[in-house]
Amino acid sequence: MTVRRADPSPRRRALVVLGGLAFAGAATIALVRRELGDPRALSAPEAAAQLEWLLAVLAAVLGCAAILLAGGAWALWRIGRRTLDSAQFPPPGIVVLRDVTVIEGVAARRRGSVLMLVAAILVASALAIAVVGGWLIVRLGAGS
């Protein structure tokens, strides 16, 4: 059995990206809470304007979620395809975040197939978010 050694640089980069995403989510929540205020104190035109703003924020959040899911699906599909082609997991040349034992043969091909299945499920989820989110935004916007 061979062991593929981790490189600390990608681990730090992954933590920075994850921290950035968490910060962006928290900032979005704080912005929405600040902008909402007390909806009971709003007049009808102000409430309609606020609903329009909230629908725009919802569209942006759902769009970002769909794009992130599709990007993750693309990455998983590529890793799964490379795993199937090389019959080795992780495939040659891929950066790992921690030391891992390289799996070869049928077990590696099975993992590659599972990764491609998960990628397909993520694409379906991204499409569902886009379609249902768009439908929801249109329905909520039509009521105002």
Coarse morphology: elongated
The count of β-strands is 4
The largest sheet has its strands arranged as: 1-3
Enumerate the spans where pLDDT stays under 50 for 5 or more consecutive residues: none
Terminal CA distance reads: 63 Å
Elements, N to C (H/E): EHHEEEH
Give the averaged pLDDT, no decimals: 89
Percent of residues in beta strands = 5-15%
Structural class: mainly alpha
Total helix count?
3
Estimate percent helicity. Answer: over 70%
Describe the main β-sheet briefly.
2 strands, antiparallel
What value does the Rg take, in angstroms?
21 Å
Would you kindly provide a written description of the structure presented here, covering whatever features stand out?
The chain has about 140 residues and is mainly alpha-helical. The protein has a two-stranded antiparallel sheet. Strands 2-4 form a two-stranded antiparallel sheet. α2 runs antiparallel to α3. It is elongated and about 70 Å long. The termini are far apart.
Question: How are the elements arranged and paired?
Answer:
Blueprint lengths: L2 E2 L3 H29 L7 H43 L1 E2 L10 E2 L1 E2 L1 H37 L2
Antiparallel strand pairs: 1-3, 2-4
Helix pairs in contact: 2-3
